[in-house]
Amino acid sequence: MHTDSASPQQGMSVVTLGTAGGPIWTSSVSENHRSGIATAVVVGGNVYLVDCGSGVGQRMVDAGLRFTDLRGIFITHLHSDHTIDLNSLMVMGGLTFRGSSAGPVPILGPGQRGFLPPTSPHIAEELEAVFPDQPTPGTAQMVDLLLRAHATDLNDRRRDTLAPAMPELFLGRDITIPCHVGFHPNDNNHPDMEPFEIFDDGHVRVSAILVQHRPVAPAFAFRFDSEYGSVVISGDTAASGNLVRLAKGADLLLHEAIDLDEMQRIYGRAGQADRKASMEHHRKAHTPPEEAGALAAAAGVRTLALHHLVPANASKEVWLRAAETFTGELLIPQDLQVIDVRSAEEMSRAELTGRGLS
Ligand SMILES: [Zn+2]
Ligand SMILES: [Zn+2]
Q1: What is the pTM of this model?
Q2: What's the structural domain count of the chain?
Q3: Domain span at 131
Q4: Does residue 358 form part of some domain?
Q5: What is the per-residue pLDDT across 78-96, written as a single tens digit (0 to 9) for each?
Q6: Ligand nearest to the CA of 238
Q7: pLDDT tens digit string along 158-190?
Q8: Which of 24, 37, 94, 192 has the highest CB neighbour number within 10 Å of its CB?
Q9: CA of 221 to the centre of ligand 2 (A)
Q10: 223 C-alpha to center of ligand 2: Å?
C-alpha cells in the first residue's frame, strides 16, 4: 500500500494525524513524537475525522487538510484521549469557516451511558459520582456543553467580527444502537451483532459496531466504504469478534495496540490500588500486537496498520510482533503518514519496506 507524506486530494486515503494512545503528553521536540489519537479518512478531497485527540487541529494544519473540507467527525468512545481537542477543533477551526458555505459538520458518537460503571474491586468503598446530576453525558450533550463553555468568546467574535455561529456549524448526534442487539453498558456491553449504517453522504458510507472496551460503553469501531476502497478503524478494544465481522475483506484496518510488558513494568513499580486497577484495565480493554495480527488475519484484510500505540515510545520491534500472526502488509505509521487506499494493489511489499514503514 502506497504511503507518503503529501496532502491527499484524489481517491481515498488515510492520514495518521496522531498515533499515540492514552491521556498523556509526550515531548513534541522529539523527531518521532506521536500526537494524540486522530485519523483522517479523505475521499475525493472530503475529510472525515475519527477521534479528536490532543493536537488534532495542529495536525490537520501540518497535514495540509482544511477544516472547511470536514464532512463528518466520528468519535469511537468518550475517553478523553479521543475527545480532548474536539473543543479546540470547533472553537478555533470553526473560525476558518468564515465566508464559506461549508457545514454544518455532523459529530457522531456514543449516546449517554445512562448508568455509572461499577467501582473497582481494588477499593472497599463506593466512590461518589463527579457531577452526580449529569454523570454520563453522550456526544450530543458534550458538544453542546463544550460550546456553551465558550459562549462569551463565541458571542464576542460573532457580534464584533461576524464570526460563524458555531452551534449551527457543528451538530452533535448520538449514535442509536439497534434495540434488538440487547446492548447494556454494564450487563451486555459487547453483544454479537452485525454492523449498522450510521452515515452516507454519497461519497462514503460509514458503518459502526460495538467493540470491547469495558467499562467504557458504548465503544465503537467504524468502517468507511467508498468507490475506491474500504477502511476500518478499531477504536479502543480488546480482541473483538464484532471487529472481525466489521473488517471482513477490508483494504485497510487500523487497529489499536498495547505493549503489556512495558505497561506492567511502568505500573509494577508501585503497589497502590489505582496502579493495580489501571493495569487491570489495560489487560481487559486493549489488544497486544500479536492479537491484533490474528484479528486482521481472521478478517482477511489486505493491510494492517497499528496505531493508538501504548506506550507511544515503545520500540518498533514490539509492534512488529503483529507479523507473527498476520502475513499481509503490516504498517507501523508515524504521525502524518498518508496511506493511499486506492492504489493498494499497485504497490509491492518490497517498495513499502524500502520506505521504512513496515
Ligand atoms: Zn484511547
Ligand atoms: Zn479508551
Answers
A1: 0.93
A2: 1
A3: 2-353
A4: no
A5: 999 999 999 999 999 999 9
A6: 2
A7: 999 999 999 999 999 999 999 999 999 999 999
A8: 37
A9: 12
A10: 18
